Amino acid sequence: MSARPKILITGATDGIGQLAALSLARCGAHLILTARSKAKADQTCAAIEAVAPGTPVDVHFVDFSDLAAVVRTGKAIAARHPRIDVLINNAGLHAFEQRVTAHGYAEMIAVNYFAPWLLTDTLRETLVHSAPSRIVTVGSEASRQSGAFDIEKDLLDIAPFTARGSSRIYGRTKLLDIMFSLELARQLDGTGVVVNCLCPGFNVTGLGRELSFARPVAGLLTWLGIGNPERGAGAIVRLATDPAFGKQTGAYVSAKSARLLTPVAPADNEEARRQLWKKTTETLSRFR
């Protein structure tokens, strides 16, 4: 990795993504960030300057529920940065009711899975040309709550759900992220691009911000020392910078213990991962 590696991180204006960006800045990275809000982006850039003065930061504004915009942003990043050392797919959403995007997809599926898939696909050639390089994707052990998964049916499911039922849908999106990461690792094996994913553990972040009681609960947990997001952010930074993970590919790692995790079915099945990739490619072909 170069003396000042170029690291692209999505979802870097909140939670563990912001903490990871600050740590990466301290490590001397040239940061490329995606953001939805200019106010939050400005706040994050100010925080980065405070901890690591002079850090180069390039911000690209994009709403990950707009998949066409994700591809445009990926192309703009590739045009501006012929070399990218690390791509960190961190942005995520936990919606507590069903919302359907303008393109007709469930918002959580679009933001948490389709968007990182498309961004990575758009930057794939750049990352290969930048080898040795890395792709880090934030999965979750919440994937174990996803239940049975039918690729043909569930990938495009837009059925309503309640706050109580949202955890299963969120878990499904994280299952998809893990399957995506493991299959991409297989495809890129031997190219010099290593692909790994992680479970950041339980973190007190803005992920549940749609719930009215989220802020006071987060304050209580923080006071109790539960769910420190520094642990999840540290795992992201480790996969992005640790020399050991510059050689290892196809890993799914726990932030809590740094041990390898065995994903829940069907993420543990290579044929299922191939089928998901094929279906996703077909579904998103209009954006590529």
TrEMBL record:
<dbReference type="Pfam" id="PF00106">
    <property type="entry name" value="adh_short"/>
</dbReference>
<dbReference type="InterPro" id="IPR036291">
    <property type="entry name" value="NAD(P)-bd_dom_sf"/>
</dbReference>
<dbReference type="GO" id="GO:0016491">
    <property type="term" value="F:oxidoreductase activity"/>
</dbReference>
<keyword id="KW-0560">Oxidoreductase</keyword>
<protein>
    <submittedName>
        <fullName>Short-chain dehydrogenase</fullName>
    </submittedName>
</protein>
<dbReference type="InterPro" id="IPR002347">
    <property type="entry name" value="SDR_fam"/>
</dbReference>
